[in-house]
Structures are given as structure tokens and as C-alpha cells.
Amino acid sequence: MTRGRVVYLVVLLLVLSQPFARHSLFANADEFDDERYAYDEDDDAVDDDEIPAGDDGDVVALTAATFSQALNDHKHLLVEFYAPWCGHCRALAPEYRAAAATLKELGVLLAKVDATKETELADKYGVEGYPTILFATDGEFQPFGAGRTSAQIVGWVKRKLGLGVTTVLPSDIPKVASLLEHSAATAVAFVPALNTPEAAAFNEAARDTDGVEFVITTHADVAAAFGLPAGKPPVLAVVKKEEERFVAFEGEYSKEAITSFLDANRLPLLLTYTEETSASIFSSHIPRQVLLFASDSAFQELSPALLAAARQFKGQAMFVYVNSSDPESQPVQEYFGADLSTTAIVGFIMGGGEDPAVPAAGLKYRMSDYPTADNIKAFTQSFIDGRLKPFFKSQPLPEENDGPVTVVVGDSFEQIVLDDTRDVLLEVYAPWCGHCQQLEPTYKRLAERFSVVQSVVIAKMDGTANEYPGLEVEGFPTIVFYPAGKKADPVKVQARKVKQFVQAIRDNASTHFDLEPSPEDDQEEEIGEEEGQMDDGEMDEGRTERAEEEEMGYDGMEGDGEDEAFDEQFHDEPLHDDEL
Q1: Which 3 state secondary structure label does DSSP give 221?
Q2: How many CB atoms lie within 10 A of CB 395?
Q3: How far is Cα of residue 122 from the mean position of the Cα atoms in its chain?
Q4: Is 89 labeled as catalytic in the residue annotation?
Q5: What digits encode the pLDDT tens for the residues 506-538?
Q6: 20-21 and 129-130 as β-strands: parallel, antiparallel, unpaired?
Q7: Which of 11, 99, 433, 504 is an active site residue?
Q8: Strand pairing class (344-349; 288-294)
Q9: What pLDDT is recorded for position 285?
Q10: Residues linked to residue 363 through DSSP beta bridges, in sequence order
Q11: Is 540 a catalytic residue?
Q12: Looking at 9, 86, 262, 456, which residue is catalytic?
């Protein structure tokens, strides 16, 4: 999996799963409830008692001093990077402890690291949100990709240990119906013996495939109980709880072929987005998604047309229904710019990995025609063929824009920010971001200072509601300076006071300007700390904001996001000043 896809998965997960981002732009997650748009200062006020020390059961707390030794001493290690103030981390804690008690019997150590204290360790392992869970085998890490219950954690780890396949005997036949009822997708292998190459390939595929129950048998009557057709082994199929009940495997019995088959067939033809299904959606290797945003009544009318397209393009695109009436889906709708009052179909690129035929992750495409079966099929075919123009969100142009800070929207970005005759400082913010709110009076004073300098524009843009091709926002606030005549080489600005901003603009402006010193600037340096402004330490350790929108990746929803991918890596994240 490429870095670009991983990053975007995290982002998506962030947005969809709604945790807190560690750095900032898609704050991966919890900032998406009704609490999500209001900065809660209590998050930062919570003390370390939020995750009680001494009540960790079999979970071992690691630091930079003990981390390497734990890796050396344990072949298998599952580690959670958390923040004491993170709500998702607190909710996960009892499930994580329960999983630790079970998995210690298999020789797996479950550990946790306070990423707000062990910042270098968190940076080393690419922690972008909280909690981030990683699994190590012989020191090699991979992202955790399952749910948040102890059973899901245990089941996922068992699969990675090669213990995820259940052998079913004739005496177990009475239990088959119950097993199928409780599993959304079951992969069933009928093999001549458990030591055959076919059985080995099946077991290897189980290690790398999430969201599927794996069973294997050497008995024809057991195979028949699962619905497999009569015949000589090997026989492999996926049995699902949906209209497409049974899918037979017809390829070569290799790990790669079986994994590809399962990834294409483990999910329903038409999947409804929920918190529970988001991880499966975002972890799929199918790079293209076609999403229907509609009310429940509209979905009932359109589902036959969507199912017809899903059958035709199975394996090429994943079809997802997002209930626009469900409050849980609001972050997803906001990320895609879907109007809550209308029905919309959107194509989305999750990332093509190494496939050069697949565009970059994160691109969105909107269908303009009425969603009939033929129109949906035509849209999907054009989407797959790369014949659609990407869609970028934009708020309406402001009716008045004569304040000290110039308001930029997606549709005015080129006209204002990329105006080659002027130097432009742009703040990309989020309405719910506490640090953006804290910066606002400083930024306004800066704009008032520069109101007499015609060559410089001080601007801002709501990054949750506006996009522009090529604009990379990794956190809120993100502040970028676009010099006149050099718009292709913008400069990220790290500043928190008017005097610092003025100096940054002087250092990078293409056009010389005269600006008289202001006594208020020096006064600001003296009293800034008293007024509660962010000090350098706060900026280094991060704030508690991250762009939820991008987290969606649907995110997301990587980040970071998973993401990951998706929903299961909720990320609560503070901002680092290198993201400003």
C-alpha cells in the first residue's frame, strides 16, 4: 500500500469515524458530533486520571525507555498510542484490557503509550491521531484494522497469528446456521486434507483479510451444509447475508488470488454506511466508490437502479448508500459537499496504489443527471474510464467582502490567492477549531495593519467548506504565503503574533512595502502570554484540533485517516506548529 493511500485512508477514517487529530487538518473524528463544532477547552484540562493508572490489567504502559525492550522480548506486540484527554481512548480502555487478558494466553503483549508525553516515539511511528493502534510481529509494524470491542480485537490478532481459520467437523453441522447468521460474510474452503497447498493458501489469505469469518473442512457433508456445490475438493466460496448469497471461487489456489477474490466479494453489492461498516469500506482494496446520498424513502426508490449498476461493475467500484437523514452521516455529507435536501451521487477515489490508471486519492466526482439505472451505469463507466471532471467544494461568493480580512471561497481562490500581482497570506481554518478562534483577533489586527499596503492581501478560507486543486491542508489552522509572481512556490508560515507575521511577510514578499512599526506589536510580545495566547511549547506539543472534513477520507474517514483506515482508528489530534 502506498504512502498516499495510507495517508488518505487515515484522513477518511478521521472524518468518518470522528476522533481527535494529533496534528490537525482532518481531525479524524469526534469533532463531528454536536460537540464537534465547538472547541471544548475541557479536553485539554482533563488530567492523566482520565485513563486510570494502575487499572490497566494486563496492558503494559511503555515509554521511550522501555519500548525497544518490549519489542525485543515479544514476537507479537499490539500497542495503542493514546492521549489522556481522548474520549475514544477512554471508551476503548476496558475493551483493550479485556483483549489483553485473552491474548496473553497466546503470547501477545498488549501495551499502551501516552503519545502526549512520548512525542518522539509517536512521531517515529507516524501517529496522526488518537487512538492509533499498531501490531508488530518480529518488530515489523502494521496498522490495526478491526473494531473496538474486545472480541473484534482478539479476532483480528488471531487472524494475524494464523489462528483465524476454524476447522468444522460433521459434529459441528448443527452450528452452521448460527455461524452464517452471525457473520456478514463467511469464506468456506472444502479441501482434501488440511496439509494441502490449497489449505495453506486459504490460511495465508485469512491473515490478510478482515471482515470475513474463515472456515475449512475436509468433509463433503459439512461443505453441503454451508451451501457449497457437490464436487471434488478443493472448493471455495463466500456465503453472505444479502441478495448475492453465494459466490464461488474459480481461480488459482494461491494466497494472492484468494485474497483478491475475497476483497471483491466479502462486502454486499450495496453497502450502507454506518459506524460499524466504515472500517470495511475504507479498508477495501477497490479504489473507486460510488456513493448515493439520499433519504430513506428516496433510497427505497433508487436501490434497484443502484443494485443493477453494482452488479455490472462488481470488483471495479464499491457502491455505498449514505442515509442523509441519519445524523451520524453528517460528517460524510459535509466532506463530499452533498446537499442534505437533495439526492446526490458522488464518485470517490480512495487511491489506486500502484495502478497508474487510477487517479490520486481524494478526488470526488458528482453526477449531474437524474439517477436512473442507465444514468448511474453511464456515470460509473465514465468514472472508471477517467472521463469525469473532479468536483471541488465551494461556498457561495460573499455578497460583501470589504472587511480587513479578505474572505476566499473555492470559486474565488484563483482570482484572489493566485493573483500574480499581489502577495497573499492565506489562513485555512475550521469554524469549530479552538486554535483558529484563538488566532482570529491577532489575524484581524494583522489585516488592519496591512490595510494601507496595496500589494499585500490578508485572507482566510473555511477549509471545511471549500477546496482548491493542489491545496494541501494538513491541519487547522494552516497558514500559507503566496508571493506575487511565484504562486507555484507557496511558503508555510509559522507565527502566532502580529510582529511574527509581519516579519514572515517581509521575508517572503515579492513586492517591497513600507509599514511603520506599531507599539502594539511590542506590547503584544510582553502581554501575549497573559492573554492566553499559545506559547511555543503549546504549538510544539500540539493543539486539539484537526480537520475533520478531510479525515473522512471519509479520514473517514487516515486520519490518519484509518484509518485505518477506516472507522476503527478514531483519531483525536492536537496540532503541531510545523503544520501552521
Answers
A1: helix
A2: 17
A3: 18
A4: yes
A5: 999 999 999 888 777 656 654 333 333 344 333
A6: antiparallel
A7: 433
A8: antiparallel
A9: 78
A10: none
A11: no
A12: 86
pLDDT at position 184 is: 85
The confidence score (pLDDT) of residue 55 equals: 64
State how far the alpha carbon of 339 is from the alpha carbons of 26, 246, 372, 391, in Å: 20, 36, 19, 14
Domains 270-385 and 406-468+476-537 are alike in CATH topology: yes
Pairing, β 288-294 against β 318-323:
parallel
**What confidence score (pLDDT) does residue 264 get?**
86
Give the number of other CB atoms < 10 A from CB of residue 149. 13
Q: Distance between alpha carbon 216 and the CA centroid of its chain, in Å?
A: 33
Torsion angle of the four alpha carbons 224, 230, 234, 240, in this order, in degrees rounded to the nearest 10: -50
Rounded to 5 degrees, φ, ψ at 222 are -70, -45
User: What is the pLDDT, as a whole number, of residue 164?
Assistant: 87
Which grid cell is 572?
483525536
Taking CA atoms, 151 is separated from 55, 88, 164, in Å, by 20, 17, 12
Q: Which one of 89, 205, 302, 306 is the catalytic residue? A: 89
Give first-to-last CA distance, the chain, whole Å.
Answer: 28
Instruction: Write down how long the chain is.
Output: 580
Cα–Cα nearest to 455, from 414, 426, 502, 422? 422
Q: What is the pLDDT of residues 282-296, one digit of tens each?
A: 777 788 999 999 999
Question: What is the structure's pLDDT at 357?
Answer: 58
Distance of alpha carbon 73 from alpha carbon 169, whole angstroms = 37
Architecture category of domain 270-385 in CATH: 3-Layer(aba) Sandwich (3.40)
Of 78, 122, 306, 436, the catalytic one is 436
Given a cut of 50, the residues of the chain with pLDDT beneath it are 1-54, 526-580
Tell me the three state secondary structure of residue 333.
helix
Q: Which CATH class is domain 406-468+476-537?
A: alpha beta
Residue keyed to cell 473532479: 390
Residue found by looking up cell 471519509 in the block: 554
Architecture of the CATH domain 185-265: 3-Layer(aba) Sandwich (3.40)
Residue of 8, 277, 444, 177 whose CA lies nearest to 291: 277
407 in Cβ contact with 397 (< 8 Å): no
What residue segments make up the domains of the chain, in order of their start? 185-265, 270-385, 406-468+476-537
